[in-house]
Amino acid sequence: MSREQMLATLRTSLASNRAWLEAEAHKAPHTPPPFVLPPADDLAAQFAAELTKLEGRVYQVADHEEALETVATLLEERKATTAVAWDRAQIGLPGLDKLLAERGVQVLDPVVRDEARKAQLQVLEPAPVCLSGADFAIAESGSLVLYHGPGRPRLASLLAPTHIAVITSDQLVRGLGEAMARLRERYAGRLFDVTSNLTLISGPSRTADIEMTLSLGIHGPPELHVVLVQTP
């Protein structure tokens, strides 16, 4: 069965069951889940501690200039000459474009589609670094919340072995319920109008499927570095 046939079958099935699905959705409670941990005085410290437990790295910096220096060091350590990235305006770090140009880092086009998909992925595959922002960072679990769409490709957080994410302290939330409530508030009923993907990243990619042995980097980047910029 071709991709188009499978999608057509799914659309037909969803259309025939839409009324029932909507009724079931309305029955479900929509109250955000309770918080898992007691309130923390310092969400940034809690986020850093939880992500460190998951083998991620957090760099708490005072301003954008220090954030650029941190990103530059991470790029230099990995001898990066190419990167897969969100649009720099979506990352929200002033001066990032200039930094990449000065260091000779070429930002590759992350859009892959249609017949050229395989060839496009082969071009992207050697990139050692992917760069992204995030919508929110969940302190209780050390998780990043990434809403994907135009200028925010999924590959910019999944493909390369090193994922560098830039966030600000005002993006920190206490728990998952708060993150989802703020997403609904930000995007209203348009959350999935242009994308069907919302990614939660809790540390480097990991699996223990093979003989119950924990391995990093099987389904995504084995390294996650979060640059956390303090906002006034």
Name given to the CATH architecture: 3-Layer(aba) Sandwich
What's the domain count?
1
Let me know the number of strands.
12
CATH homology superfamily: NagB/RpiA/CoA transferase-like
Alpha-carbon distance between the two ends: 55 Å
Question: Into which percentage range does the β-strand content fall?
Answer: 15-25%
Structure summarized in a few sentences:
Helices cover 37% and strands 21% of the residues. The chain has 8 helices and 12 strands.
Structure explained in plain terms:
There is one protein chain. This protein has eight helices and twelve strands. The protein is globular and about 55 Å long. The strands form three sheets. Strands 1-12-7-4-2-3 form a six-stranded parallel beta sheet, sandwiched between helices. Strands 8-5-6-9 form a four-stranded mixed beta sheet. Strands 10-11 form a two-stranded antiparallel sheet. The mean pLDDT is 87. A hairpin with a 4-residue loop joins strand 5 and strand 6. It has helices at 3-27, 43-53, 64-77, 88-91, 96-102, 117-124, 155-158, 176-187; strands at residues 57-61, 82-85, 106-108, 129-132, 136-138, 143-147, 162-168, 172-173, 198-201, 206-207, 215-216, 223-229. The protein has one domain: 3-Layer(aba) Sandwich (Rossmann fold). The chain is an alpha/beta fold and 232 residues long.
